[in-house]
Every structure is written in structure tokens, then in C-alpha cells.
Specification:
By secondary structure, the chain is α/β, with parallel strands linked by helices. Helix content is 40%, strand content 14%. The protein folds into 3 domains: 31 residues, no CATH class; 224 residues, Aspartate Aminotransferase, domain 2, CATH 3.40.640.10; 93 residues, Aspartate Aminotransferase, domain 1. The protein is globular and about 70 Å long.
């Protein structure tokens, strides 16, 4: 008998040739005792979507936004149509619309924010025209913490005949989100911002819009039937989930939602407001420190610049003290330029060059 055969006979019993104990093996995989993977329903409840088929699993919010751009945008936008974003968007909510603009001949308009980071609603109103087809706006700025007036944005956009997409990556962890109350058309977020695993994101879309959109990716699972002559597509949500699903990531996201839901998003938001107030007061007392983003309605994000040192040197010192911090442009270079921080960075780099040669 070969060594391989002997090894196969020896597992999982205690002696060679022992009967194969299926139940013992099954015990190593607790998932086999579960009858339903409930992650999609947990996300539906978390966002208060109408139906589980309105929840599409993606790899992250970047893919969610690209899905809308490449599917809905290509199908329903025409040359001369307008898309509105804001000055404080993450690159994930800028680049897909620039690509679509260049492909389709769209007009990309930019909604303004004030020097202290307030979304200027009156200026936004002036951008809306009969050619405006989509408004794609962050719900909470990842740099400034500004909470945009989402309900008013939706109302004004819908009055103009436009659809609304929110980048909710920073919002879902800071406060409750109700997509039905917002009446937004699309909403995306990323799992790892919600203490879940990386590699999982969510696109919420109104069912009537998702039904009308062509698939974003082709392959397994998103089909009803395939012949060499024709493919018919699966119903929602499978139509937008080609390939092997992110099973482990979805389960992890469901567990993260259970966790924050048990804590209570309203409780988290209240605690963060107190923490932000305290942090703002303490940081304002640091000589040479300038707080960036002081809108009255903001989430617990504290961005700052500081004289006398490069941001990466500052972050290194703070990191060694055990505080998680991020330095750089935060994937929001246009906002940094709007706030005059690109020049500050370049000046600091010149100082580094002079010091270190």
C-alpha cells in the first residue's frame, strides 16, 4: 500500500483503516449547520431597502460607483447630458464620471463647498438644469467630515428630473442611513469602513432602475441560460453579481452589521459628537495647527495641517504614540487644491529637500 493510500485510510479515524467519520469532518465546518446565509437581508434591513433584490454585492464602493457609471450611465446618458459631483468627492466618485464624460460627451459640473467645508446648497441649485441627469455626491466627506444635506439634494435633483447616487462609505459607520427616507436612487458603501472584511461592498439601487440596466460583468451566476446564439440574464440581484460570490466577505459584513446594530448607530453618533467636540477644543489649542473642515454639521473626522513639519513626519510621531492617523491627500486631490493645501504640501516638500539635500 502506498503512503498516500495509508494516509487516506488513516483520516479522520484513530488507526489505519478506521471508518471515515463524516460527522467528525462536518463538525470542522460550522457553516454546514446553517440553512440560510442571511447577509443580504441584513444589509437590506441596515439600509431599510424595500427588497433584498435591491442589494448588490460588489468588491467595494469604488466598484459600486463604476457599476452605475458603466451600466446605467452608458445606457441612459447621451451627449450633452450633465452629471453633478462636488468639490469634496473621493477619487472614486470623480474618475468614473470623467471617464464616462470623455466617452459619451457629457458635461461634468462641480458643486461648491465653503472655506470651512459647508456644502453650498444655493450654489448647487444653480447648477441644476433640464439636462442634469445624475447627481453623484458624498454623504459624508472622508476629509472634512461634512454631512451633506442629503434629503434636500435628493428633493432638488428629483424636481429637476435627475437621479441621485450617494457615496456612503463614510456615512454608514457614523449614523443611521435609511435609503427609503432619503429617496435616493443609488447608495454605495464599503464593508471594511464598517469594521467588516476588505473585498466587500454594497450597491443599493431602486429595483425599477436596476431591472432596466444592462449587466456590468458577464460570466457565471449572472445568467438564466446560455447558448452560443444568445444569453438570457438572471433576475436581480444575480444579474450584477458575476462569478463566484464573495461568500466569506459577505458573511463577515453581516457579522459587522450585527455588531454595530447591537451598539446602536444613534448611540455611536451621539458618542462621536461628544468626542468630536472635545477633540476640536483640544486641537484648537495646539500652536501652529490649523483645523480643516469646520462645518457645523459634520461627522467625527478631524483633519488638520501643522506648521514646522512635513505631514508624514507628523504622522510618524503620532503613529508611534499608538494613534491611528492618515497623512497625504486622502484620495481627494481636487479638494486639497480647493483648500489651498496642495501648495502647502509642495512648500513642505521644498523644505524637506533643503534640509536633507
Amino acid at each position: 500500500m502506498s503512503e498516500v493510500s495509508e494516509a487516506m485510510d488513516a483520516r479522520p479515524g484513530d488507526r489505519p483503516g478506521a471508518p471515515f467519520d463524516v460527522e467528525r469532518v462536518r463538525a470542522d465546518f460550522p457553516i454546514l449547520n446553517e440553512t440560510v446565509q442571511g447577509a443580504r437581508d441584513k444589509v437590506r434591513d441596515f439600509l431599510n431597502a424595500r427588497d433584498r433584490k435591491e442589494i448588490i454585492f460588489t468588491s467595494n464602493v469604488t466598484e459600486a460607483i463604476n457599476l452605475v457609471a458603466k451600466s446605467w450611465g452608458r445606457a441612459f446618458l447621451e451627449e450633452g447630458d450633465e452629471v453633478i459631483i462636488s468639490e469634496m468627492e473621493h477619487h472614486s466618485n470623480i474618475v468614473p464620471w470623467q471617464m464616462l464624460r470623455d466617452e459619451k460627451g457629457l458635461t461634468l459640473k462641480i458643486a461648491s463647498v465653503s472655506d470651512d467645508g459647508v456644502f453650498l446648497l444655493d450654489d448647487f441649485k444653480q447648477l441644476l438644469t433640464e439636462r442634469t441627469k445624475l447627481v453623484a455626491i458624498t454623504h459624508v466627506s472622508n476629509v472634512l467630515g461634512t454631512i451633506t444635506p442629503a434629503e434636500e439634494i435628493v428633493r432638488l435633483a428629483h424636481d429637476a428630473g435627475a437621479k441621485v447616487l450617494f457615496d456612503g462609505a463614510q456615512a454608514v459607520v457614523h449614523m443611521p442611513v435609511d435609503v427609503q427616507a432619503l429617496d435616493c436612487d443609488f447608495y454605495g458603501f464599503t464593508g471594511h469602513k464598517l469594521y467588516g472584511p476588505s473585498g466587500i461592498g454594497v450597491l443599493y439601487g431602486k429595483a425599477e432602475l436596476l431591472d432596466a440596466m444592462p449587466p456590468f460583468l458577464g460570466g457565471g451566476d449572472m445568467i438564466r441560460s446560455v447558448t452560443f446564439e444568445k444569453t438570457t440574464y438572471a433576475p436581480l440581484p444575480a444579474k450584477f453579481e458575476a462569478g463566484t460570490p464573495p461568500i466569506v466577505q459577505a458573511i463577515g459584513l453581516g457579522a459587522a452589521i450585527d455588531y454595530v446594530s447591537a451598539l446602536g448607530l444613534a448611540n455611536i453618533a451621539a458618542h462621536e459628537r461628544d468626542l468630536l467636540t472635545y477633540a476640536t477644543q483640544r486641537l484648537a489649542s495646539v500652536e501652529g495647527l490649523r483645523l480643516i473642515g469646520t462645518a457645523p454639521d459634520k461627522a467625527s473626522v478631524a483633519s488638520f495641517t501643522m506648521e514646522s513639519a512635513h505631514p508624514h513626519d507628523i504622522s510618524t510621531v503620532i503613529d508611534r504614540a499608538g494613534v491611528a492617523i492618515r497623512a497625504g491627500h486622502h484620495c481627494a486631490e481636487p479638494l486639497m487644491a480647493r483648500l489651498g493645501l496642495v501648495d502647502v504640501l509642495v512648500d513642505a516638500l521644498e523644505t524637506v529637500r533643503e534640509i536633507f539635500g
